[in-house]
Amino acid sequence: MSVPRAIRQAFLAIEQSEGAGARVRRSIGTHKLRNFSPFLMLDHFTIGKGAGFPDHPHRGQETITYLLSGGVDHEDFAGNKGTIGPGDLQFMTAGRGIMHAEMPRDNPDGSPNVGMQLWVDLPEKLKMCEPRYRDLRAEEIPTATTDDGKAVIKVISGQSHGVDSVRDLAYTPVWILDVRLAPGGKVTQMLPKGWNAFAYTLSGTTSFGGGSTAAAQKKMVSEFHNVVFEKDGDFVHAENGADAKEEARFMLVAGQPLDQKVVQHGPFVMNSQEGVYQAMVDYQTNSNGFERAKGWNSEIGKRM
């Protein structure tokens, strides 16, 4: 018999400044939610003209960027460059070292560029792998539909109602689903056993939970909240009220926990203090993966 996952906590992601002129709602990687393996950080970002994330390094993690509106250019010291638009994703594995820039497009109508960026830890044995990028375009993402069309799920990574994602894009196993519920819509989503899972609400009001135990009772959650689920259980249930004035939309994310220590200093995520110190030294001396950082300046970073 399948068991629903109870809600461990639900909290509002407070907007704050980040980078150069960007605004983010950070919900993972704060005092509210740390050590939620394999997830290190979750930012819901808004970046307008004259703002962005100019040249900066990474080591030891993967970043997954999902653009909701607008456009973001990226460029790194290995010559990789490109643009993601609405509904596109970029999966970046920093591995042993990357230096790159992420800068917003200037939209003709003056609207900001909005998206989600999730930082995922790398297994210790892959911390020093070669860096890589994979882009996933909006038109490549399959869609699952249930509840007579009132529930629509974009299967970015993982499985939903008989629909599989295109391919695994991250080294650490992660499921990412973009769920929209019309008024009166509901969805029951199975998740891998033992994986950590959360939902981030993007719009509307969603009712999560439902079960015979008090812990699994329904909870109404408005936009910009992170809903963290208990590890026990087989599925997450969500509904949008029949009298709702708008659709409810949320990201449902699950990941396989890594049994390892996390030591993070800014953009460097390793398994020990010594590893972080070595990353800082390697970056400062342009060595051991950061050789190409010497004298490198991105073209897109010059917009600042």
Describe this structure in words.
- 4% of the residues lie in helices and 47% in strands.
- It has one helix spanning 273-284, and strands at 7-12, 15-18, 22-28, 39-47, 53-58, 61-69, 72-76, 81-84, 89-93, 98-104, 113-121, 132-136, 143-146, 151-157, 159-160, 163-164, 174-181, 186-190, 196-203, 206-208, 219-221, 225-229, 235-239, 248-255, 263-265, 268-270.
- The strands form six sheets. Strands 1-22-19-24-17-14-13 form a seven-stranded antiparallel beta sheet, with no helix packed on it.
- The N and C termini lie far apart (56 Å).
- The relative contact order is 0.21.
- GO terms for molecular function: metal ion binding.
- It comes from Polytolypa hystricis (strain UAMH7299).
Strand-helix topology:
Layout lengths: L6 E6 L2 E4 L3 E7 L10 E9 L5 E6 L2 E9 L2 E5 L4 E4 L4 E5 L4 E7 L8 E9 L10 E5 L6 E4 L4 E7 L1 E2 L2 E2 L9 E8 L4 E5 L5 E8 L2 E3 L10 E3 L3 E5 L5 E5 L8 E8 L7 E3 L2 E3 L2 H12 L20
Antiparallel strand pairs: 1-22, 2-3, 3-4, 4-11, 5-10, 6-9, 6-11, 7-8, 7-10, 9-12, 13-14, 14-17, 15-16, 17-24, 18-23, 19-22, 19-24, 20-21, 20-23, 25-26
CATH topology category name? Jelly Rolls
CATH class group: Mainly Beta
The CATH superfamily is: Jelly Rolls
Note the beta-strand portion: over 45%
Question: How many domains is the backbone divided into?
Answer: 1
Biggest sheet overview: 7 strands, antiparallel
Q: What is the percent of helical residues?
A: under 10%
Give the second-level CATH assignment, the architecture. Answer: Sandwich
* End-to-end CA span: 56 Å
Name a few traits of the molecule.
mainly beta; Jelly Rolls; seven-stranded antiparallel beta sheet; 4% helix; globular; iron; RmlC_Cupin_sf; metal ion binding
